[in-house]
Write a structure and sequence with these properties.
Layout lengths: L2 E4 L2 H14 L3 E10 L6 E9 L4 E5 H4 L3 H11 L4 E4 L3 H11 L6 E3 H7 L6 H9 L6 H8 L10 H12 L1 H15 L2 H12 L23 H21 L3 H4 L2 H10 L14 H22 L1
Parallel strand pairs: 1-4, 2-5, 5-6
Antiparallel strand pairs: 2-3, 3-4
Helix pairs in contact: 1-3, 5-9, 5-10, 6-9, 11-13, 11-14
């Protein structure tokens, strides 16, 4: 599959100018990301584009290193060109968090699919509407968990990435036609409204410690402790540039919060982390005491 690789701000700016001159107002788009699997943090790694004429791989890692690169990506992601996507919410959240960019002018084909009572993934939707057999689930899973931070990007990964934008134009056309034949005008209006706001953040982003399993079941005191132990683990992971799970499994963070201490829970290989978690324990203790004083 032929494509153009873009890693410089002026290259992306030039592409946007070309689209404007050629009257291209809609493109297919998808992201590949890194989310605490191979290194610390969440990163937009690549942006795949297809304008019906050519495929593009945008090196978001390289562009994010400079103000000029971020500005060029902002012009794309927030600009007037319609971006056809599938299930944009997670990509929109990642763009906000990693790039400080809000996706705009998104046409999410999954919104129509759900209105038509289809809840499968992109592969299933392509097979359902376009009768095209795609890669098997195991093959796709391999590339979804691949290291997208690596450069140069292996050819097989690029082929996989571009395959997710290959059929988005056809899916949009097919789903719009199906919607017109199966939904009332009123229902269609609601669907189109939902598409317009699909990339907008609906709820405030929760801090990471609130996403740990069973957080809602913890006592008020345990919630204070888990915050500080979580932040301590996060700081260690950031410093080492490794996924936080390599520092300490989240189940152990939960156990520390319930016990109110790292002692007896931190594994032997984590001995060098003891001062960091002891400070976290003391900070949690102080916050909990302050909370109690204010309450009484």
């Amino acid at each position: 599959m032929d494509y153009t690789f873009i890693s410089k701000p002026q290259e992306l700016t030039s592409l946007l100018s070309q689209w404007s001159e050629q009257g291209i107002v809609s493109v297919a788009m998808d992201f590949e990301e890194e989310s605490n699997l191979h290194c610390y943090g969440e990163h937009v790694c690549t942006i795949q584009l297809y304008d019906k004429n050519r495929y593009y791989i945008i090196d978001a890692i390289e562009l994010a290193k400079t103000k000029e690169g971020l500005s060029a990506m902002k012009a794309l992601l927030e600009g007037p060109v319609e971006k056809i996507m599938f299930a944009c919410q997670s990509d929109a959240a990642l763009a906000r968090k990693a790039l400080k960019i809000q996706l705009k002018n998104i046409f999410d084909v999954r919104v129509i699919a759900i209105a038509l009572e289809f809840n499968g993934n992109l592969t299933s939707l392509i097979e359902r509407n376009l009768k095209v057999q795609s890669e098997d689930a195991a093959s796709k899973k391999k590339y979804q968990t691949a290291n997208w931070m690596r450069r140069p990007i292996p050819p097989a990964q690029i082929e996989y990435a571009l395959s997710d934008v290959k059929y988005l134009f056809d899916l949009k056309e097919s789903l719009l036609s199906e919607m017109a034949s199966k939904l009332t005008k009123s229902q269609q209006g609601r669907v189109m409204h939902d598409i317009k706001v699909c990339a907008v953040q609906k709820h405030p982003e929760r801090p990471g410690w609130e996403k740990i399993c069973n957080f809602k079941l913890l006592s008020e005191k345990e919630k204070v402790y888990i915050k500080h132990f979580f932040l301590a683990r996060d700081g260690l992971a950031r410093k080492a540039n490794v996924p936080a799970s390599r520092i300490l499994d989240k189940r152990l963070v939960l156990a520390m919060a319930k016990k109110g201490t790292w002692e007896g829970i931190l594994p032997p290989e984590g001995k060098s982390y003891e001062p960091v978690f002891e400070k976290a324990r003391l900070d949690a203790e102080a916050e909990w005491a302050d909370f109690q004083n204010k309450r009484h």
